[in-house]
């Protein structure tokens, strides 16, 4: 196979037009750091980060992290399990006391 008969799709990345700009290339803005980088037009829908950002390891997620409970949901749960809703001296009343104490100690911050 001669040089001119090679697959042109591979070599199209390095072709230049009469002004010296690479043919088929576009400028993309990195979604993480905001830097601009050159990318082949065919890859525009797929690549949204520059090389340094795409090679950077992802931050580790805390395995014990729980999503925050919205304040409105917290208020409903407190109302539903409040000790006043249970007969004193029963196991449900003791459980309601413990649950309400825990909820009050872990009250969500902010407005709901």
Keyphrases for this structure?
single chain; 112 residues; alpha+beta; two-stranded antiparallel sheet; 2 strands; rod-shaped; disordered N terminus
Structural notes for this entry:
The structure is a single chain. This protein is of the alpha+beta class and 112 residues long. Among the domains are: 15-55, no CATH class; 71-105, no CATH class. The chain has helices spanning 8-11, 51-55, 71-81, 91-105, and strands spanning 25-29, 36-40. The protein has a two-stranded antiparallel ribbon with strand order 1-2. Strand 1 and strand 2 (36-40) form a beta hairpin. Helix 3 (71-81) runs antiparallel to helix 4 (91-105). The longest helix is centred in the last third of the chain and has 15 residues, at 91-105. 1% of the residues are buried. The model is unreliable at 1-12 (pLDDT under 50).
């Amino acid at each position: 196979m001669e040089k001119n008969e090679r697959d042109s799709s591979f070599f199209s990345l390095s072709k230049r037009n009469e002004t010296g700009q690479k043919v088929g290339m576009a400028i993309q803005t990195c979604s993480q750091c905001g830097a601009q980088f050159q990318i082949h037009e065919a890859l525009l829908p797929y690549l949204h980060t520059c090389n340094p950002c795409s090679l950077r390891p992802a931050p580790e997620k805390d395995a014990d992290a729980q999503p925050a409970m919205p304040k409105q949901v917290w208020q409903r749960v407190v109302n539903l399990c409040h000790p006043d809703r249970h007969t004193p001296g029963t196991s449900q009343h003791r459980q309601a006391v413990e649950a309400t104490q825990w909820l009050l100690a872990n009250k969500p911050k902010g407005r709901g």
